[in-house]
Amino acid sequence: MTDVGAAGESVSGQIAAEIAGRIATGELARGDRVPSTRQIVRERGVAMATASRVLTTLRRQGLVHAVPGIGTVVGPGRPGGDPAPIDPVPIDPVPIDPAPIDPAPIDPAPIDPAPIEGSPSPDPPAAASEPALSRSRVVATAIQIADAEGLAALSMRRVAAELGTATMSLYRHVRDKDDLLMLMVQATFARYPLPARPADARAGLEALCRLQWSSYQRHPWLAQWVSMTRPQLIPSAMAHTEWAMAILADLGLGVNERLHMAVTLANYVRGTAINLEPEAQAEQDTGITSHEWMASQDAVMAGIVASGEFPMFAELAQVEDLDLTLESLFEFGLARLLDGLEVSSGR
Q: What is the radius of gyration, based on Cα positions, of the chain?
């Protein structure tokens, strides 16, 4: 699919100009969300690369910027004005404390300069001609993009555009996109240090699961990348499994049971969190929250239960305060898993 229109102007340039015009007229005010890449693809019938170029053009003009958890919004710039400087938000060093446990954060070990195969590559010296470009800045920018728009919007070209540098310059700091993704995961898990191990095993495992849930909520793309069947050996992520297995060892569980229970808990949290990014994208694209969407289905549900074929759903329809959300699923399922662990371990 080409990015050139009938008049010779690129399709991405035409779309960017249209959005810039909406900003100029005030139709899109400062802080308003602009169409996402997926929305542009769906509505304009263009390729994802073309949609990405639209937002990159608007960013370079200083008209929009990415906001983690929200998407791309109108910034302080105006069409025809001087572009606002691109300044990626650095990784927030303050961890989330999910439980009232006295923290004793561990200091995540740096990536081994001679990693095993499949691990992130060591950080090479920065080129003298690019004193402002570093691995940490590349990773922070990539995380910012993924947080705001999901993994589908992430590419080496997009990161380079955000940093105002050439795409090839990034390869002095990361091997490729896969290497960048592993570094992003390493850095993200390291933002959530493990708490001190409590005396109560259940409290410790619950705190660990809540810590993971918090990280997935802040970074919805993370659950999409983490794999239970082909896990990557990333120290900051492995530390979570190590910590869980140490608690389970204190319960007298065998090695095999420890591994299966630790992975079962992690997989439960990740399996629930994997819905966070699609839901965030749907809300960004439509402007409709999950609660509003469910409310819009009331008439359809009424017709279904009126058939008499779904008595259980008919009973649910009579409950006014029923609220099924990802948060309630997480809370309910975690409690049941921990109940089962106590029974199986004899505690």
A: 23
Specify the number of domains making up the chain. Answer: 1
Angstrom CA distances, 254 to 45, 103, 216, 341, 343, stand at 55, 28, 29, 13, 16
Q: Which residue has the tokens 């549900």?
A: 301
CATH of the domain at 52: 1.10.10.10
Is 50 exceeded by the pLDDT of residue 99? Answer: no
Please report whether residue 50 resides in a domain: yes
Q: Locate tokens 């446990």: which residue?
A: 101
Q: Is 88 helix (H, G, I), strand (E, B) or coil?
A: coil
In the structure encoding, which two tokens stand for residue 330, read together?
A: 């997480």
Answer whether residue 33 is part of any domain: yes
Per-residue model confidence (pLDDT) at position 167: 93
Backbone angles phi, psi at 74, to 5 degrees: -70, 135
Secondary structure element (H or E) that encloses residue 67, with its range = strand 64-67
Q: Two tokens at 283?
A: 């809300």
Q: Is 118 helix (H, G, I), strand (E, B) or coil?
A: coil
Tell me the pLDDT tens digit for each residue of 206-223.
999 999 999 999 999 999
How do residues 261-298 score in pLDDT, each as one tens digit?
A: 999 999 999 999 999 888 877 777 777 777 778 778 88
pLDDT over 70 for what percent of the chain?
A: 79
97 within some domain: no
